[in-house]
Design brief:
By secondary structure, this protein is mainly alpha-helical. It has 16 helices and two strands. Strand 1 and strand 2 form a beta hairpin.
């Protein structure tokens, strides 16, 4: 058994066309851009901006968004090149299979499964909290025990404290979206498009209204003087804030998981990845500039809802309700895209024999890998409803950064080993840009806490046990398939 056996790009593309593994190609470039925006814009826009400004960069948090966007752009260009060459499902897993071999592909695929599962679970819990708050504004109160997990201590209406039981809204949204994904990618994309329009309207409304209530004095000093501690204002504060804000961009990589469902993937997927990144960057810069202009960065320290504070400076209290609705919409689209990406990676691993065949079976009517969706519906909803998984939030970041590094390295490997392969999209200034992508992502990973690294290591050890007891013996490539 060759641990580093590679699939040729011709093999990968041929295996994805026709037969029992064929997914329905129904997504155009605008749908892919919408998927990217749906995954990127979430609560990070509304929460991380205030935190990074108050604790690290001040008004210069705008520059931090630029730095983070540059780092994402390097990875996004690498994803685009590989997606245009290998237009099939699986994202970084499939690309790694073609560049670094099966063993590394398994590691990155197993890592992506955790990344998407944790992301969807954490966002579902946050979705539940915002729905509860949104309904409370209309005097509708959900039972506290059934909107919190058993590990949470909650305060009841009479002032007494008790343990939660189960987070039903969080479980319900996972089930609903999973069923939607089973029914069809076209229907799922349509729902995502509607949600994206709603949350873009909310963000643009905040920017359009807030710009009239900016106090220019709040921009001085634009770069606050460093306190002497690394990461607290000054240039180091801008860089530390960039590291925090980077995670608000996570999600564009899921566009590449839908390559096999794109009508013309060699053109559409690069448009989807780079287009969604560009749109979100412009919105992030405008949002950060307006927020720090309305509220002084010092006043945002310890403020759990700086956007709400900014809205209170306007004569439009109805904006509070609108922003909450926009956040709920943002969470919904993030969950949808994360579950989509997760099921497509699992589908690709199953198709290669590394996981049981049942997970790559395509529904005869819906043309989706419905059993993968079904598995993760139970798995993700269980964790969202039962466990306090907020501590696992950084797992999403470290898993994504690891995938980014592998993809950037993959571009460099293929440029060297197979320079004559057709590349409808090419990363400019290669190998400089891919190398810079690796450096930026590696710097982000090293800044994460030790507990996050241990959780990743434990998950990968579980994956290695599965690989060496099942996957390597059932690999179609190693068996000559």
């Amino acid at each position: 058994m060759n641990l580093f056996v590679k699939k040729s790009i011709t093999q990968i593309i041929t295996a994805s066309e026709g037969g029992e593994y064929q997914l329905k190609r129904s997504l155009g470039p605008m749908s892919l851009v919408s998927l990217g925006i749906g995954a990127i814009i979430g609560a990070g826009l509304f929460s991380l901006t205030g935190i990074a400004a108050a604790e690290n960069a001040g008004p210069a948090v705008v520059l931090s968004f630029v730095v983070a966007a540059v780092g994402c752009a390097f990875a996004g260009m690498c994803y685009s090149e590989l997606a245009s060459m290998i237009p099939v499902a699986g994202s970084a897993y499939t690309y790694t299979y073609a560049t670094m071999g099966e063993f590394i592909a398994w590691i990155i695929g197993w890592d992506l499964v955790l990344e998407y599962a944790v992301a969807a679970s954490v966002v579902a819990v946050s979705w539940s909290r915002y729905v509860k708050s949104f309904l409370h504004d209309f005097h509708i109160d959900l039972p506290a025990q059934f909107t919190s997990c058993s590990f949470d201590i909650i305060t009841l209406a009479d002032g007494s404290q008790a343990h939660g039981i189960i987070n039903i809204p969080a479980m319900l949204i996972i089930v609903v979206i999973s069923l939607l994904l089973m029914i069809g990618i076209k229907e799922s994309a349509w729902v995502n498009n509607v949600i994206v329009v709603i949350k873009l309207a909310v963000v643009l409304t905040f920017i359009g209204v807030g710009i009239h209530y900016i106090n220019p004095a709040n921009y001085h000093p634009f770069i606050p003087e460093s306190t002497g501690k690394f990461g607290e204002y000054g240039i180091s504060g801008i860089m530390r804030a960039a590291g925090i804000i980077f995670f608000a961009y996570i999600g564009f990589d899921t566009v590449s998981t839908a390559s096999q469902e794109s009508k013309t993937p060699h053109k559409d997927v690069p448009i989807g990845i780079l287009g969604s990144l560009a749109i979100c960057t412009v919105l992030y810069l405008a949002f950060a500039a307006v927020l720090t202009g309305m509220v002084n960065y010092k006043d945002m320290r310890g403020d759990a809802a700086p956007v709400a504070t900014a809205i209170n400076l306007t004569p439009y209290p109805w904006l509070q309700v609108l922003i909450k609705f926009g956040i709920i919409a943002g969470f919904t689209s993030v969950i949808l895209v994360m579950l989509l990406g997760q099921s497509r990676v699992f589908y690709s691993m199953s198709r290669d024999g590394l996981l049981p065949k049942m997970f790559s079976d395509i529904h005869p009517k819906w043309h989706t890998p419905w059993r993968s969706n079904l598995l993760f519906m139970f798995f993700v909803s269980f964790f969202a409803g039962v466990f306090p998984i907020s501590k696992l939030g950084h797992m999403t970041s470290i898993g994504t950064l690891l995938a980014f590094i592998i993809v950037c390295a993959g571009v460099m490997v293929l440029r060297y080993t197979q320079p004559l392969l057709p590349r409808p999209y090419r990363v400019p200034c290669s190998p400089l840009f891919p190398f810079l992508g690796i450096l930026v992502c590696l710097a982000m990973m090293t800044a994460l806490d030790t507990d996050t690294w241990w959780r990743l290591i434990i998950w990968l050890v579980i994956g290695l046990i599965i690989y060496f007891t099942y996957s390597r013996f059932n690999s179609k490539l190693n068996k000559g398939g």
